[in-house]
Amino acid sequence: MTERRQLFAAATLALAATPAAAQPARQLTGRTALVTGAARGIGRATAIALARLGADIALLDIAEPEAIPALRGYRLASRAELAEATRLTAEQQIRTLPLVADIRDAAALRAAAQRIEAELGGPDLLVANAGIAINGALAEPAPEAWQAMLDVNLTGTLNTIQAMLPGMRRRGRGGRIVIVTSVQARMGVNGSGAYAATKWALTGLMKSLAAELGPEEITVNAVAPTAVETPMVHRGGDAPQPDPRRAAAFAGHALPIPVLPPEQIADAIAFLCGPGAPTISGTTLDVNAGRSAQLTA
Ligand SMILES: NC(=O)c1ccc[n+]([C@@H]2O[C@H](COP(=O)([O-])OP(=O)(O)OC[C@H]3O[C@@H](n4cnc5c(N)ncnc54)[C@H](O)[C@@H]3O)[C@@H](O)[C@H]2O)c1
């Protein structure tokens, strides 16, 4: 572990430590969840969190590090990472189904839906998490980066939901959809405007779907994280080690934590998928170390 990561980890521990709670009740036994972008990062943590609650899990990922040429600074996940995520998820004694698919490919997602239904049933729970981030100024045209982010973050998310809805409807027992947006769906961002635009668009998608699917008792919500300790944020590089408290303040966090562990986001997603949230729909759950204190209501 690099020094920078050690510092972040130290700052993270006190806040993120789960009390010595015993194994959580397996409230999702009998349910099937699909998590996209599940090979690593937030998606992997979510697959494990939902599995701990007893759900069977389909883990979908592009699993091809170089599949999106416009991506700069970091790579997509590999097949080995998807296999490792599946292994860790299966440790929770539930059924798993790894799926290699690109969420830009609607036909591949329909095929994935058929496999999920045939092998696991469902899905009842859908976590649309896969996404990419490419930095750059909006004033500087970067058409490939713009298109790639629109295609993955926005169209890919809609593709996923459209492919899984028929199966959810057939299950007919109150599906849950959670879309992973970002704190950047809450503000304008210098140097990340295209990414922010796709995340704002996802908020609109989430709210409209909540209105559309509510009569079928399917809830649709978003979880909006601040910076999370994943390859997307680290981009393989190690900046000079910042003091974690100062880094947190710089990031606008009220809490003294600059970067969140993915498990914190997974727990919020699991809440929205669980028995505590059947009547929550059309909303964004911010997981941002108190950044919300500076945002308008
Ligand atoms: N890391 C952060 O700081 C942060 C903050 C806010 C929001 N988010 C959002 O969280 C989500 C997960 O990001 P992460 O931080 O875990 O990043 P990550 O890069 O570690 O994980 C993203 C996963 O999605 C997969 N993926 C990307 N494009 C895909 C495609 N077209 N089809 C299928 N799979 C694809 C990748 O292979 C990877 O496994 C993203 O939507 C991201 O925008 C991340």
TrEMBL record:
InterPro entries: NAD(P)-bd_dom_sf (IPR036291), Sc_DH/Rdtase_CS (IPR020904), SDR_fam (IPR002347). Keywords: Oxidoreductase, Signal. It comes from the Bacteria. The keyword Oxidoreductase applies. One of its GO terms (molecular function) is oxidoreductase activity. Residues 1-22 form the signal peptide. Belongs to the short-chain dehydrogenases/reductases (SDR) family. This is 3-oxoacyl-[acyl-carrier-protein] reductase. It comes from uncultured Craurococcus sp.
